[in-house]
Specification:
The chain is of the alpha+beta class. Among the domains are: about 55 residues, no CATH class; about 40 residues, no CATH class. The protein is built from two helices and five strands, in the order βββαββα. Strands 1-2-3 form a three-stranded antiparallel β-sheet. A two-stranded antiparallel ribbon has the order 4-5. The longest helix has 18 residues. The protein is elongated and about 65 Å long. It binds iron/sulfur cluster (SF4) and zinc ion (ZN).
Length: about 140
Amino acid sequence: MKCLECGSSYARKVGPIVAKDKVVGKYKIPNAEYFECKNCGDRLYPFKTCQLLDKERLKTMKKRLNMKFEKYEHHGENVWVRSDLKGKHRENCLCMVCKKLDVMNSKKNCPIANAVFKNCKKFNLVTPMWECPKFDEKK
Ligand code: SF4
Ligand SMILES: [Zn+2]
């Protein structure tokens, strides 16, 4: 197979792979198959290697963020939550500091917030609003 970058050819290799991304930083798998261009160094990863990298990425992310999970009863339903974020949905929700939120009057309340709340009720979710195009800061 010809290199997608320079047209040269790939060599099959087996060895350690170091990957990196913005959220997780560096992570490494010890021994996996890959193809590397003899000329420009471009790499192709077979599906199995991609799976190993994904698994390692998840493991590293959980470790770096010290992610733990727990189950507890919320509004009569057993739900899962990240332990470090339990009970923090309000302080992370844009709606809490938005002029358009009016929980006392669902007719006047923001239609987006109403729709999200309806969905939360339906599936027993807690969904803090992280980003919103209609946000209007309450001063
Ligand atoms: S406009 Fe956005 S941030 Fe404001 S209440 Fe509605 S959903 Fe929440
Ligand atoms: Zn190349």
